[in-house]
Specification:
alpha/beta; QueA-like; 2 domains; S-adenosyl-L-methionine; cytoplasm; S-adenosylmethionine:tRNA ribosyltransferase-isomerase activity; QueA_sf; QueA_dom1
Length: 339
């Protein structure tokens, strides 16, 4: 298939710019991936769609306030987006400036400390913090939540909470695992009372998740790498679920990529590392039986993954339906249930 096969036209006013007042208030488009049948529901309906035999797999990554504003020694403005840490004081980052800084240049942050440009690695700059503080301490002090490029507003105090899942605990992502944003403590409690099992993986979502596919031939596309970990406890939970006939339900494409990356051998295994797994139609899923996700950008790798899971024609028809029914799209938008 080609990149252009995954294009669709989305009216700008369907791109959610703010979260709803309540996390669980979203709508949920339900797709039967075997028949293509569609149904309109509320997200709260997910409690009724799960059984005590099912296992929910959440991504417990935590979004860091990874956007910083700085100045060059010459006074020029600079915007820094941390992509990932190499150690407590050295990072790889995107740097936006009128003229790219050279190795050795200093970037003055608003709290008076400096990043020194060490070198460049492709599109990323290696920056070393010239301070006693760690990068995470600096981000906690002056960092901004890295809202996606299709949200056309500055971040505010509410995003510190709402662009974060309620179960986030492992800092390292620069984009939220957005399917998990719909869950609040009350919904989690209802699921627990019903007996629905849960486990966690970690995949630190990188800004590359928003990077457009620039080649028409998908076999020529190179995926960005992201850190992931699947624990022995998660593997045991998945095997127990499968043994008793339950479904492994991935909450979000990031949970899918973590599980499938740990299943390359054909069987899910515990492990930690980096993944650049690119899932397109024709891929054989090994560890996921159902999925909750949000709506994804046209021609994006995430739309391709969802199409691989639920069928290309089914998914594109579902997106046409969602646009007609005026669902809210992308990170702060509505949900989609695929089973």
């Amino acid at each position: 298939m080609k990149k252009s096969d995954f294009f669709y036209h989305l009216p700008d006013d369907l791109i959610a710019q703010q979260p709803l007042p309540e996390r669980c208030a979203s709508r949920m488009l339900c797709l039967n991936r075997l028949t293509g049948e569609l149904g309109d529901a509320r997200f709260l309906n997910i409690v009724d769609r799960l059984t005590p035999d099912d296992l929910l797999v959440f991504n417990d990554t935590k979004v860091i306030p990874a956007r910083l504003f700085a100045e060059k020694e010459t006074g020029g403005r600079v915007e820094i987006l941390i992509e990932r840490s190499e150690n407590e004081r050295q990072v790889l980052a995107h740097v936006k400036a009128s003229k790219s800084p050279k190795s050795g240049a200093l970037l003055l942050l608003k709290n008076g400390v400096f990043f020194r440009v060490v070198d460049r690695e492709g599109d990323l700059f290696r920056l070393r913090l010239e301070a006693e503080n760690t990068v995470l301490q600096v981000l906690a002090d002056i960092g901004h939540m890295p809202l996606p490029p299709y949200i056309h507003r500055a971040d505010d105090a509410s995003d510190l909470d709402r662009y974060q899942t309620v179960f986030a605990c492992r800092a390292g992502a620069v984009a939220a695992p957005t399917a998990g944003l719909h869950f609040d403590e009350a919904v989690l409690l209802r699921l627990a009372e019903k007996g629905v099992q849960r486990t966690f993986v970690t995949l630190h979502v990188g800004s590359g998740t928003f990077r457009p596919v620039r080649v028409e031939n998908l076999s020529e596309h190179t995926m960005h790498k992201e850190f992931f970990e699947v624990t022995k406890e998660c593997v045991a939970a998945v095997r127990y679920t499968r043994a008793r006939g339950g479904r492994v339900v991935a909450v979000g494409t990031t949970a899918v990529r973590a599980l499938e990356s740990a299943s390359i051998s054909g069987e899910l295994q515990a492990g930690v590392g980096e993944t650049d797994l690119f899932i397109t139609p024709g891929y054989g899923f090994k560890s996921v039986d159902a999925m909750l996700t949000n709506f994804h950008l046209p021609e994006s790798t995430l739309l391709m993954l969802v199409s691989a899971f639920a069928g290309y024609e089914n998914v594109m028809a579902a997106y046409r339906h969602a646009i007609t029914q005026r669902y809210r799209f992308f990170s702060y938008g509505d949900a989609m249930w695929l089973a």
